[in-house]
Amino acid sequence: AVVLGARRHRSQRPARVAATMPRFAQTVREWQQASGVDTARTTLIGFSQGAIMALESTQTDRPPAGRVIALSGRPPRVAPMVTRVHLIHGDADRVMPVHLAQDALGQLQALGGQATLDRYPGLGHCIDGRVLAAVVSHVQDGRP
Questions:
Q1: What angle is formed at CA 95 by the lines to CA 89 and CA 96, rounded to 5 degrees?
Q2: What is the pLDDT of residues 64-123, one digit of tens each?
Q3: Cross-strand partners of 69
Q4: What is the 3-state secondary structure (H, E, C) of the chain?
Q5: Catalytic residue annotation
Q6: More confident residue, 9 or 5
Q7: pLDDT tens-digit map of 24-65
């Protein structure tokens, strides 16, 4: 029963993400307006489900951010043309295997998207000091 429930849960993921996306994008736009930051200067950073949402936002007609830093997330279906994507992934991640990030990088670059990837040896489905330092560095340097 647990396995069937997990499969059903997984199969409903795209519909749940799609249903949540309008409110997600609206929330980002509200924060942009409140802080005076435009879309081009907005970076969405997400881990796991947060990364999935941030990456999926690049698939909308009006992506809410100029850059996404995705930690251990599932890749977008189509290469975003206006949003730079940086993937961060542990090579020991059992929840979201690293091959998802590697495949996404190749696909995004082949389709003309701006994408980069940092892999971390021995890192599972978590954030450690190396990842945190990389995120801070990417944000401060304005790198994708």
A1: 40
A2: 999 999 999 888 778 887 899 999 999 999 999 999 999 889 888 888 888 999 999 999
A3: 45, 86
A4: CHHHHHHHHHHCHHHHHHHHHHHHHHHHHHHHHHHCCCHHHCEEEEECHHHHHHHHHHHCCCCCCCEEEEECCCCCCCCCCCCEEEEEEECCCCCCCHHHHHHHHHHHHHCCCCEEEEEECCCCCCCCHHHHHHHHHHHHHCCC
A5: 48, 93, 125
A6: 9
A7: 999 999 999 999 999 999 999 999 999 999 999 998 888 999
